[in-house]
User: Fold this.
Amino acid sequence: MNIAIRYFTKSKKGNTEKLASFISNKINVEALDTNNDLNEEVDLLFLVNAMYAADIDKNVKEFLERNKNKIKLLVNVNSAASGASTLKSVKKVCDKLGIKVSEDEYHTVASWIFINKGRPNEDDFNRLESFVRKVAGN
Ligand SMILES: Cc1cc2nc3c(=O)[nH]c(=O)nc-3n(C[C@H](O)[C@H](O)[C@H](O)COP(=O)(O)O)c2cc1C
Assistant:
């Protein structure tokens, strides 16, 4: 299975980058930020993202627009301070672009300014490992 990992991180904490790097280590696939387009069609894309102002960032939307024809299945991996998932926002964009999105997603609460200190924590990363195993079969 051809797998790619793309992420977009905005805050200084780099929560999304940490989640993407973790997946990268588990499946031996390079994690690149969303400024890097896909070189070829992929069976599975881990789109690692976070919620900003109740939406996904413009950079992520633009990546999806540019790469819509190269993604067979998108798997959403995301965090937010509130505990709300970005799946709805990701699906809204992908539905318009004709990108198939898995209903199965990984979400974690994450730190922001002074709240949720230390998240994602060890338990969150353990859950991510199980999720990646299930989805990618590693
Ligand atoms: C500019 C900004 C806006 C945010 N807006 C929201 C929000 O509307 N809802 C929410 O639950 N979390 C919000 N957060 C928290 C982030 O989703 C959370 O901290 C995430 O882990 C950040 O990932 P990053 O460190 O990779 O940028 C916001 C964070 C930033 C920096």
